[in-house]
Amino acid sequence: MVVYPDVDARLSDDEVDRIFRALADATRRDIVQRTLIEDASISDLAERYDMSFAAVQKHITVLEGAGLVTKHRSGRMRHIRANAQALRKAQGLLQTYERIWQHRLAQLDALLAEE
Amino acid sequence: MVVYPDVDARLSDDEVDRIFRALADATRRDIVQRTLIEDASISDLAERYDMSFAAVQKHITVLEGAGLVTKHRSGRMRHIRANAQALRKAQGLLQTYERIWQHRLAQLDALLAEE
DNA sequence: CTAATATGCAACTTAATGGTTGTATATCCG
DNA sequence: CGGATATACAACCATTAAGTTGCATATTAG
C-alpha cells in the first residue's frame, strides 16, 4: 500500500468545509472526474452541461477554491486539471472516522468477551 | 483488507450530494465523530456547541437526511448514532477517483516507456 | 486588421442554509 | 398532579449559493 504522508495534517475546518462543499454537487464531481482522466478547457467542460458558460466557470471557481482543481494557462485557453492531493485529504478524514468506528466495535467485542 | 460490498452501488447523485453537503460543516462533522465513538442524546450534543438547541436539532436533521446518523427513541430522549455505512459510501467514491488518477499516471508512465 | 473564440467578471434573481425565538407536546420525578 | 426536562416544529431573518444575462478583454485565425 502506498502511504501519502500528512494527508490530513493541519487541515483547517474551513479547508475541509470547502472540499466537501465542492464535492456536494454532481456537476462539480463530474468535472473532477473528467479532469482526473484528462485535462480539459473550460469550453470543453461547458459544452457537456446543460447550463451557461458562466455557470460552469463558477463551478470551476468553487473547485479551485477547494484546491480540487488547478488552472493552467495555454494561450487563450485555461486547462483544468484535478488535484488528487485534495481528494486524498477528504479521503484521509473519512478514513479517520472509519478507524474510530472500528475502535468502537473492538471495544464492544472486548466487553462481550469479558462476560 | 476488509471489503465492503456494494459500497457505492446505485448511489444517486442526490444521495451523494446530501452526504457531502452534510459533511461540509464542522459542527456536523463533530457530531458524526462523537456519535461514532458513543451514542449521544440531542441535549448532550447541544451542550457542546455555542448555538441554540434548535440549531443543533437542525444539524442532526441534515445528518439524518444524509443517512449519516440515526435516531433511536429511549423514553423522552433520542439517542443519536453515526452510521458508518454512509461514510463508506463517500469514501468509496473518493477511492474511485483515486483509482482514475492512478490509471492516468500508469498511462503516462507507459507513454514515457515507449519513447 | 478583423472576426471569431476563450475567458473573466459584474449585476441581478431565486432558492437554500444556518441561525434565531417562541410555542407545543411528551415524559419523568417527587 | 405539577414542575422540570427532552424534543419537535413553525416562523422569521441574514447570508450564501447557483443560476442567469450582458459586457469587457485577450488571443488566434484568415
From TrEMBL, chains A, B:
<dbReference type="InterPro" id="IPR036390">
    <property type="entry name" value="WH_DNA-bd_sf"/>
</dbReference>
<dbReference type="GO" id="GO:0003700">
    <property type="term" value="F:DNA-binding transcription factor activity"/>
</dbReference>
<feature type="domain" description="HTH arsR-type">
    <location>
        <begin position="8"/>
        <end position="102"/>
    </location>
</feature>
<dbReference type="InterPro" id="IPR001845">
    <property type="entry name" value="HTH_ArsR_DNA-bd_dom"/>
</dbReference>
<dbReference type="InterPro" id="IPR036388">
    <property type="entry name" value="WH-like_DNA-bd_sf"/>
</dbReference>
<protein>
    <submittedName>
        <fullName>Winged helix-turn-helix transcriptional regulator</fullName>
    </submittedName>
</protein>
<dbReference type="InterPro" id="IPR011991">
    <property type="entry name" value="ArsR-like_HTH"/>
</dbReference>
<dbReference type="Pfam" id="PF12840">
    <property type="entry name" value="HTH_20"/>
</dbReference>
